[in-house]
Amino acid sequence: MKRFVRLAVAAAFCAASGLASATLNSAGTFTGHVGVSVDGIGSNNTPVGNVQASIPVGATILKAYLYSAGVPFPFYSDAPKTLADYNTSGITLAGNMITNFDTLVGAISTPRPDIGRWFTARADVTSLVQTLTAGAVTSNFSWTINEGTKNNRIDGEVLAIVYSDPSQPLGSVALLDGGQNTGGETTSVFLGAPLGDPTAADFAARLGFAISFSCCNQQSQITVNGSPLANAAGNNDDGAAVADGSLITVGGLGDPTTNLASYANDRELYNLAPFLHQGDTSFQIHTVNPTADDNIFFAHLYLTGEIANVTPGVPEPETYALMLAGLAAVSAIARRRRGMRR
Fold first, then answer.
1. What ranges in the chain are assigned the alpha helix state H?
2. 3-state secondary structure of 8
3. Does residue 85 share a domain with residue 9?
4. Are 44 and 155 in contact (CB under 8 A)?
5. How many domains would you assign to the chain?
6. Coil, strand or helix: which one is 11?
7. What CA–CA distance (Å, rounded) separates 235 from 247?
8. Can you spell out the DSSP letters for 243-282?
9. How far apart are CA 80 and CA 264, in angstroms?
10. Are 7 and 60 contained in the same domain?
């Protein structure tokens, strides 16, 4: 009997914790004299458009990822769902065919069965970007994106580049794969050393998000350490038109850090300094999309401090409720069985 209760308790916890979803998972953390360049583009045109990059002359490319964000399935029955769908569609960067998508991110369900799930693909394009920037005498780059046969079923692309250059201050960059649970999700960022003074002139802390399938007042909310950072994240700021296959916004190059901006003015790049304190060793990021129809599939974090790791945070309130319900059910079963033995 005791063994049965133990197994049931474990099952209840496992079932409940499985609902906590993916959080923001680290796709790489880089510390030193590092910087980050992030940009995105989306359209149903051919070519889709140009993605930008800003990299100091002579910098060393440490990592570069290309994200391709498909529309949801089964909302569109021919939406890309597998790595093969992306690798065979004819996606190109600067005329180079990208056939090495090897990771699916954002493959999460929503509470709306009409929407279904998003399957976003990520390719490591480090060697390609190293080649494209080799010997450059400029820090500004512009490369053409094509989406091939899936053009109107892919909302757009994000190019995220981490580089090292002695001209950069000491700091950290974290690239984060999303697929955020639309019902709410918390991620914890842990620091390798207590944080310096966020009010200092040389302190910087920026958080940027990439969101697909977003337009028409579909808004996500973001809090840091429980305080509102953004009330109206979303829209198709980097898409060419309000049309599925072109609905993407990416906080990055050229965007202002406009905390709590309106839906029209929010550019998904935020200043974290007001939410941090000297001596902090961690902080929490929470996202929620009340309309359950936006895909937060990528984030990047830059900090003049040491990012040690990024991990799932505490379960959402509804998860706690399910855990308690599971334990209550187990307790009821145990009481009934004790009664049967009398």
1. 2-17, 83-87, 126-133, 317-341
2. helix
3. no
4. no
5. 2
6. helix
7. 7
8. STTS-EEE--TT----TT--TTT--SEEE-GGG--TT--E
9. 29
10. no
Residues 229 and 323 in one domain: no
Pick the closest to residue 224 from 301, 169, 291, 290 (CA basis).
301
What confidence tier does 214 reach under pLDDT thresholds 50, 70, 90? very high
Q: Which residues contact 179 (CB under 8 A, 6 or more apart)?
A: 21, 22, 105, 106, 107, 108, 118, 120, 295, 296, 297
- pTM for the full predicted model: 0.86
Q: What is the average per-residue pLDDT within 56-78? A: 97
Residue 333 has a pLDDT of 39
- Is the per-residue pLDDT at 82 higher than 80? yes
DSSP 38-97: EEEEB-SSSS-EEEEEE--TTPEEEEEEEEEEEPPEETSTTS--SHHHHHTTT-EETTEE
Q: Note the pLDDT tens digit of each residue in 147-202.
A: 999 999 999 999 999 999 999 999 999 999 998 889 999 999 999 999 999 999 99
Distance CA 205, CA 10 (A): 40
pLDDT for residue 22: 53
Do 332 and 246 share a structural domain? no
Distance between CA atoms of residues 45 and 43, nearest Å: 5
Q: Are residues 62 and 10 in the same domain?
A: no
- Structural domain harbouring 153: 24-312
- 308 and 330 share one domain: no
Token code pair at residue 88:
């065979």
**288-311: per-residue pLDDT in tens?**
999 999 999 999 999 999 999 898
Do 263 and 330 share a domain, yes or no? no
Residue 177: is it exposed, middle or buried by C-beta count within 10 angstroms (0-12/13-18/19+)? buried
Check whether residue 91 and residue 120 sit in a common domain.
Answer: yes
